[in-house]
Amino acid sequence: MADVLFKALADPTRRTILDELAEKSGQTLFEICSRLSTRHRLGISRQAVSQHLAVLEAAGLVETRREGRCKFHDLNTAPLRRITERWPTPDTPDTPEPEKSTP
Amino acid sequence: MADVLFKALADPTRRTILDELAEKSGQTLFEICSRLSTRHRLGISRQAVSQHLAVLEAAGLVETRREGRCKFHDLNTAPLRRITERWPTPDTPDTPEPEKSTP
DNA sequence: AGGATAGGCAAGTGTTCACTTGCCTATCAA
DNA sequence: TTGATAGGCAAGTGAACACTTGCCTATCCT
Q: Region (Disordered): which ranges (chains A, B) (predicted)?
């Protein structure tokens, strides 16, 4: 369950892909490839990026929509919230209440 | 930099250790070992747990303090906040303000 | 139809990683 | 001092993983 999420975040290339999708939503596979190459100096094959996107999609971090022969990718940050919810910090509760107990 | 943090979170055993430290702070290595064995049915050697704790400490997720021959481990959730800060959600800003814009 | 664009499937390879085994050091109690 | 407890260091092994290479399918344009 949570395994795929953390495994997906474990790779630095995948995190860079999330950065790119956060900056520009709805990119295609080739668009991500060229931006990884030009902006991040990542010499990586198209298939490698495709596999990374599959992992990110399995983790729920990326959602896709097809239009013809193009496949657009969108970032979904919702699964990230489960991380801070699992180990909540006393100062920052995951269910914030408008109440002050520790001044 | 962030690599050690995400690599540390990638392993399910390490996440279970964080769960245990979140429940009971200041546990020793042997205490963690026995709780992993009895409460989580994890048949794992003491050295394996020690290596996991070293990874978690390198990521800043676990802080240690020595007293004689005992070493106590404490959870530090501060590095986890960098995750949600890296990919902020429009609905949940990382700097929450007491204001309602989307009812 | 035919080429070009956008993407998918599958096997092979090298590296990283989790875990074990074996031995060693340091502190505490008798 | 001797034995027991708490932990550390280092090499070795097997499996998971990132990446490549090669080929195949589907859509769009002329």
A: 81-103
Across the interface, whether the CB atoms of A87 and B9 are under 8 A apart is answered no
> What is the Cα–Cα distance from B30 to B72, expressed in whole angstroms?
10
CB of A92 less than 8 A from some CB of B:
yes
Q: Compare CB distances from B84 to A2, A19, A80 and report the shortest one's residue.
A: A80
Contact in structure between A36 and A17 (CB atoms under 8 Å): yes
The answer to whether B6 contacts chain A (CB < 8 Å) is: yes
Average pLDDT over residues A11-17: 98
Q: What is the pLDDT of residues A37-66, one digit of tens each?
A: 999 999 899 999 999 999 999 999 999 999
A9:B6 CB<8 A = yes
Chain D nucleotides close to protein (CB under 7 A) are: 5-10, 17-22, 26-28
B18 in a structural domain: yes
Range of the domain at B16: 2-85
CATH of the domain at B26: 1.10.10.10
Neighbouring-strand partners of residue A66:
A71
Structure tokens, B44:
């794992």
Domain count, chain A: 1
In a domain, B96, yes or no: no
Q: Answer whether residue B65 is part of any domain.
A: yes
* Distance of alpha carbon B92 from alpha carbon B90, whole angstroms: 6
